[in-house]
């Protein structure tokens, strides 16, 4: 029996790691507020009134390298990747793991499509 990890194991580990991180993060959706040199990412909440908000990230400072400011681009990306996205990806990855539970270490073409992402997530934790 091989000691190598099965693809399903790697996928499930990554799915669980991503799901835990997404659940601990501030609930989405998130949106970008401000422009260019005073960009923030805020949680979108219907129950917050009177100018209050939950700040997710503040990306202050002008980036000379970019006309629009890299901070704004980063904020847009952060907002797009809120926990709703992480939970959806984790859910799909767990489903694929379940479907390929019996695969050997080599996996199949379907597994191999997901393994780079799973290894990226596993390698960061
Ligand atoms: Zn497979």
Q: What does this molecule look like?
A:
By secondary structure, the protein is α+β, with helices and mostly antiparallel strands. It folds into two domains: 1-24 and 82-125; 26-80, no CATH class. It is 49% helix and 14% strand. It has four helices and three strands, in the order H-E-E-E-H-H-H. The protein has helices spanning 7-24, 70-80, 83-99, 109-123, and strands spanning 30-33, 38-43, 54-60. Strands 1-2-3 form a three-stranded antiparallel sheet, covered by helices on one side. A hairpin with a 4-residue loop joins strand 1 and strand 2. Helix 1 (7-24) runs antiparallel to helix 3 (83-99). It is elongated, with a radius of gyration of 19 Å. The structure holds zinc ion.
């Amino acid at each position: 029996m091989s000691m190598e990890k099965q693809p399903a194991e790697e996928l499930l580990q990554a799915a669980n790691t991503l799901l835990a991180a997404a659940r601990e993060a501030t609930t989405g959706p998130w949106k970008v507020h401000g422009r260019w040199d005073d960009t923030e990412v805020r949680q979108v909440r219907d129950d917050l009134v009177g100018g209050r908000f939950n700040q997710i990230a503040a990306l202050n400072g002008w980036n000379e390298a970019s006309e629009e400011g890299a901070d704004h681009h980063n904020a847009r990306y952060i907002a797009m990747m809120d926990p709703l996205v992480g939970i959806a990806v984790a859910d799909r990855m767990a489903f694929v793991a379940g479907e390929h539970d019996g695969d050997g270490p080599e996996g199949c073409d379907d597994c191999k499509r997901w393994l780079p992402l799973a290894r990226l997530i596993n390698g960061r934790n």
